[in-house]
Queue: 2 jobs
Job 1
Amino acid sequence: MVDVLGWRKVFAVLGPSTNTIVQPDMEAMRPAGVTNQYRDIYVENPSALSDADFMAGAGKIAEGFKDALRTAMTMGPDYLVLGVSAIAFIGGAQACDRFVTEVNDFTGLDISVGSISCVEALKAYSPNIKRIAFVSPYYPAANAHVRRFFEDYGYEVVRDVCLRCTSWRDIAQQGEARLRGVLKDLDGDDIDAIVQVGTNLSMVRLAAQAEVWLEKPVIAINAATYWHALRANGIADKIDGLGKLLAEK
């Protein structure tokens, strides 16, 4: 028997309960015959954040992930999509590989995670991409893990910016004017691409625009993750208006 609406695939998308960007982002990318079933990872919204608070909060999200996963499995999804990025970067490439393996062992399903998806997106754009810059809503301690992850895959991280958002909900409140300025600050002749991490940061449409005026790949993590999930499931539909990755790769 096939799900009436998800006759191609039913995706379970797991993200923090405070996240308001992933669900609308991924709905905008969803082709016919695929459904996105968002399941919350419960987390409180902090009133302030620091380096230590951010890392502790990421730890709480990781702790709550298995409960959300257990809930998601009751609907019988075909595939899993991780709608939170920090926990897939922390500890570098080996830690991420262990996480993916643990999820597969627990559920019998494969999962697209933002960290690996961004690497696969960079490869899809060009094997010649070597030097990158990235922006996150994180704090320096978390950015260090993102840097390590990309370096584990052989990329040189030339520059990075952490926005030091004051709460999980504050991430979704960062406007285009600030983010446009950050992209311009990150850009330079010494980098081949820009990556945005942090799934509650609204960057899919701005990244698509920035690819035009920066004339280089600008990869938004939600676009990369959903693209990876579609392609991993043999769904080759091209989605226009949300960047070259979804439209051409």
Job 2
Amino acid sequence: MNPRLPRTLSADQAIPRTDVFKRQLSLSAILTVALTGANALVSPVAQAQTAWPDKPVRIIVPYGAGSSPDVLVRILAERIGPRLGQPAVVVNRPGAGGNTGTGYVAKHPPDGTTFVVSTNGPLVYNTVLYRKLGYDPLTELRPVVLAGGQANVCAVRADSGITSLMGLVEAMKAHPGKFNFSSTGVGSLSQLGVELLKVKTGTFAVHIPYPSSPQAITAILQGDVQFACVPAVAVMPQVRAGRMRALAVSTAKRSELTPDIPTMKEAGLPEIESVAWMAIMAPAGTADAIIQRMNREINEALAAPDVKQRLHAQFMEPLGGSPEDLRAFMQNELRVMTPVIQRIGITAD
């Protein structure tokens, strides 16, 4: 499959190793150093880089269990832990639409023990939505790898009587003030996609944020909200069980993972496209050798056939690339999304 991400919400449109002892020493000098303690000549930072990892590596998920980042990183952790020689421990730290866990890692010492798998909102969009975000993802976090992406799926409860995306639009117009929608948090793509839909169609619905996509779906099933456009991993099991109806996918072309669901354009809204992406980040200041090792291990995991199969089963597309690729991608997301968010006219604080 083509790993290239579709454009986002268009409003219009071998690791370099540190050679600690690279010195011109005679054989006798080397023997002397060895006998008296070579470690005395090596800085603590260099030692840490050479030995990394010498303890378990934590990967923070800033959303609840069962969310897309949680599912993706648990699959990856099983693969990379043995290769690193230390457990890769997944820790959920949800709150504030992903800002809590993402900000925690942004402020964490850059010692190679802690990473985060975060998403569009906490890593890019919230820099525009929040006046006081509490951390700067572009300067306090260092890119590791763009790990995966997936389409958002707009869906309603199966017994709603709504059978198409335009049918949802007409229902909102006919019953103003009667529709709520759930999302994975303020500033998430699952909010912004619907906000753009509202602007394009002149409709109104109240936003109700939740800590994770499974909870956003549960809200629909319980009747607390009427619809959502959230990652496929949470929607499709309910669609297959007959409890929900999928109306459209957010990508520019039909997804090979959900081939029977029309795109937004096919459903009548040509100017709305989006993809939910997930990236691994580290605290700024994390050593180059650690970043490159983690990048290599995750890329190799993403390329493994069994990992691809498991991710596809969860409606996720493995991506990958270099840290520089991820940095450029995030900068482009910021460039594209800033005018979109400003056009929508929403703020988070």
